[in-house]
Inverse folding.
DNA sequence: AAGCTGTCCTGAAAGC
DNA sequence: TGCTTTCAGGACAGCT
């Protein structure tokens, strides 16, 4: 399931394959994703050059002169590079062609989305971007970010991280992994974190996300890079999806808990409170 | 206002 | 064996 590292790995692939190239055609085979695909607005971009790529939280941004295309991979989405004239495979919904090669969105569960934001619109005012917390892999993210944002919160730490109001891009896998490395139980109230806890958690989040980007992301079910290459961070996970298996640090069986209707994985020995 | 719950969707796994 | 049910998850609307 794509979280920040998977989106970043995808972005790097798109950037290296297609930056500077001209968008020659747009095809929408299945417009019913999480939100309706803006087929007309996308089609009008044909003929423009892909100037560059960026990312905000888990949104991948493709910059053209008159607009930027905002892609979210949902939980099963991936962008693939394919020959422009190749036959459509099951669950491939949208194609952006750049001459002979094209980028195709493959998303079995269709939780992904594609939006088109005109150049004159302020990205930060967009409904999906407004209200998001700081980017974790920037200097703006500090222990104080977490400490301040968590004051007065009754919510558990796991849901607090997933909510994205303090820091963005940390999804279910990396939240469990970060809390393990910071020795904090996911069920603890966020408001009860000490500054020292926030220092460890900050460091853990930065490390986990950076390592995951370097590992090509986590390929648990559907994710792959644009060339189909699989990430391998999941083989290094200490707790995620390891219920009943021995903790890699102390051999205590990993337990599964549910917070906010999402699975959390925890070692009760390494995460004492 | 913060923080729950339900919804979207499909494939895999579990249950019968 | 084969059908049915359950579960997983990110974002967000709609509640309380």
């Amino acid at each position: 399931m794509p979280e920040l590292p998977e989106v970043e790995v995808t972005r790097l692939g798109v950037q290296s394959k297609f930056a500077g190239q001209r968008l020659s055609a747009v095809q929408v085979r299945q417009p019913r994703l999480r939100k309706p695909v803006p087929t007309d607005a996308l089609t009008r971009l044909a003929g423009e050059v892909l100037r560059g790529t960026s990312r905000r939280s888990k949104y991948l941004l493709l910059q053209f002169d008159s607009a930027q295309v905002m892609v979210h991979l949902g939980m099963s989405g991936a962008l693939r590079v394919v020959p422009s004239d190749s036959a459509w495979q099951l669950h491939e919904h949208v194609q952006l062609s750049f001459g002979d090669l094209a980028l195709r969105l493959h998303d079995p569960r269709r939780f992904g989305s594609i939006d088109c934001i005109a150049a004159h619109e302020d990205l930060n005012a967009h409904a999906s971007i407004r209200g998001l917390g700081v980017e974790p892999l920037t200097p703006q993210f500090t222990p104080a970010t977490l400490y301040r944002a968590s004051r007065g919160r009754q919510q558990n730490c796991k849901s607090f991280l997933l909510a994205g109001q303090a820091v963005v891009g940390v999804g279910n896998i990396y939240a469990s992994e970060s809390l393990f490395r910071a020795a904090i139980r996911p069920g603890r109230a966020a408001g009860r974190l000490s500054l020292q806890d926030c220092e460890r958690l900050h460091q853990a989040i930065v490390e986990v996300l950076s390592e995951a980007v370097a590992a090509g992301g986590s390929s648990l079910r559907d994710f792959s890079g644009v060339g189909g290459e699989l990430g391998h961070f999941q083989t290094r996970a200490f707790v995620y999806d390891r219920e009943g298996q021995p903790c890699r640090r102390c051999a205590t069986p990993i337990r599964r808990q549910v917070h906010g209707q999402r699975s959390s994985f925890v070692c009760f020995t390494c995460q004492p409170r």
Notes: The mean pLDDT of chain A is 92. The CA atoms of residues 66 and 119 of chain A lie 5 Å apart. Residues 1-3, 34, 58, 72-76, 109, 111-113, 127-128, 162, 164, 171-172, 221, 261-263 of chain A lie near DNA strand C (CB under 10 Å from a C1'). Helices of chain A lie at 4-18, 39-43, 143-150, 157-163, 172-181, 195-214.
